[in-house]
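Example record

One chain of 146 residues, shown exactly as stored in the release files.
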Amino acid sequence: MGEPETANPLRFRDDEPVGDPAVTVDAFAAQTNANAVRLEPGDDARDLLPYLDRLALIEINFPTYGDGRGYSAARILREHGFAGELRAVGDVLLDQLSHMRRCGFDSFAPEAPIDPAAAERAFATWPDVYQKTVDDRTPIWAKRHG
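Predicted structure tokens for this chain:
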């Protein structure tokens, strides 16, 4: 498996892409001018909370499709107000996109290319949802019970 293609990710944002490379969390802590960081599975997203206002891009690495820690990291960041680009990188599969989007990802750099039209179809797969999350869609239980 090669490195994900982060130069041309699937982006679902209207703002300009971040041109700076993402640095590690450790490197970010030692810099004052970095605006892009990459979280690895062992990193704690909460370490970035004091710096969310200066970050434009956070990449979250998925080394294998079965590693779900990145979903939790994304949700933590969005629930604490991160409004920048949140990019899933690595072993990101088409059938995960809808769930990743619900957790707050708005950009994807998978190891294997994903057709943008297929991605749009994946996002529309489940019009109704059961869990409350950061994408502001009303869960079915809330629709039923007000």
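Notes: Confidence is low (pLDDT under 50) at residues 1-5.
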